[in-house]
Write a structure and sequence with these properties.
Layout: H1 2-19, E1 23-26, H2 28-33, H3 36-73, H4 79-104, H5 109-135, E2 140-143, E3 149-153, H6 160-166
Parallel strand pairs: 1-2
Antiparallel strand pairs: 2-3
Helix pairs in contact: 3-4, 3-5
């Protein structure tokens, strides 16, 4: 009989501990829509993007113009002239693609500028989320938009060091 009572008590304590973790979520789009600096940053990035897109379009229009001129003059050209004009068209197209990649590529200027402009806004939101989590004694906060993203986690639930130890590695080699 004592074993049954002990098992029931242990089970209740375990379930209570499992449900003691407190969760919350935020809607980051809703938060950002209420921040004037976010709207301003979006406008600034959009204006810069539009300007660069016009420049990219102008480069490709030049390539198109050169190609049309080349095809129109094709019957009148010598083989040497054909090679030179083809090389000119290919070179202009390569320049246009390189310019487009420089501005809009994964490591392009738009990405870099976006990161620089948005980082202070994101940091401010993150600090506010952490303050709310600590004030409400929440252990985890998730963002309900897009993929599930953990925005705040109470460090006492971080089991990374234990996993590293379990893998036979030494924690503390790489700082977080």
């Amino acid at each position: 009989m004592k074993k049954v009572i002990l098992i029931i008590c242990f089970t209740l304590v375990t379930f209570t501990a499992a449900f003691a973790q407190r969760f919350g979520y935020v809607d980051s789009d809703y938060i950002l829509r209420h921040m004037p600096e976010y709207a301003s940053a979006q406008k600034q990035l959009s204006a810069q993007s539009d300007q660069w897109q016009k420049e990219v379009d102008a480069h490709f229009q030049e390539v198109d113009r050169l190609y049309k001129a080349y095809t129109a003059d094709l019957v009148l050209m010598t083989p040497d002239m054909k090679k030179r004009r083809e090389a000119e068209v290919v070179d202009k197209e390569k320049q246009a693609k390189d310019f487009q990649k420089q501005k809009f590529g994964p490591d392009g200027e738009l990405t870099t500028k976006s990161s620089a402009i948005m980082k202070p806004i994101q940091d401010r939101v993150a600090k506010a989320i952490q303050a709310v989590a600590e004030a409400d004694n929440l252990d985890f906060i998730f963002d309900k938009n897009g993929e599930v993203i953990m925005l705040f986690a109470n460090p006492r639930y971080d089991k990374s060091a234990e996993v590293i130890t379990k893998l036979g590695l030494k924690p503390g080699i790489f700082a977080k």
